[in-house]
Amino acid sequence: MSSLPTMNLSEAIENRRSLHKLSDDVKITDSQVQDILRHALLHSPSPFNSQTSRTVLLVKDEHKKFWDMAHEVAKAAVGSPVFEKAYEPRIKMFREAYGTILFYDDPTAVEELAKQRPMLKDHLPQWMDHANGMLQYAVWTMLAAEGVGCNLQHYNPMVNARASQEWNIPETWLLKAQMVFGNPASPPLQEKTWLPLEQRLFAHGV
Questions:
Q1: Per-residue pLDDT in tens (0 to 9) along the chain, 206 residues
Q2: How many C-alpha atoms does 184 have within 13 Å on its Cβ side?
Q3: CA distances to 19, 40, 140, 168, 196 from 178, in Å
């Protein structure tokens, strides 16, 4: 890593929130973001170390290009009242951020594993999702430690074909999520509340 986190792990976990209003005035460098992605990709777990997750980093004009593309495909796919009320304002808001990380799964990475262990074949898609989710969480938490705001979006599958064509992404890759990041421009849209931990944490033999 090119720099030490500004928070410890516990603080970063606590401060990782969905921040939707973001600006492009970030304090982190492109090199630092790439270092975070490299570190998370190397050290996040995957089924049988199959390393199925892939990332595509888009910043500056490439980030804006993605959300212009999302605007275009969503407008064509969604009825006018819904698009204008729900999609358009959010897409414009995401466009104001600095960058977007596209998270993919590459199912070809487990083809040989499925052949070697056919009893696992039906489980592998779910396990790939688990691995991708852990990668997303690792990246999000590490960005939070650097004071970067993020939110996670799912405009797939609407944008899949256009993104693959624009950035030469293999069509076999499965787009799972889009992480928008930038400088926090406002607090979270809503206060976070918690269920009592007694309803969520159970321990036996302690």
A1: 444 446 788 998 999 999 999 999 999 999 999 999 999 999 999 999 999 999 999 999 999 999 999 999 999 999 889 999 999 999 999 999 999 999 999 999 999 999 999 999 999 999 999 999 999 999 999 999 999 999 999 999 999 999 999 999 999 999 999 999 999 999 887 888 999 999 999 999 99
A2: 17
A3: 14, 16, 11, 17, 31
At residue 186, φ and ψ (nearest 5 deg) are: -165, 165
- Indicate the SS3 state at residue 172: coil
Task: Tell the residue number behind the tokens 């890593």, with chain if given.
Answer: 1
Cα dihedral sign for 80, 84, 90, 94? positive
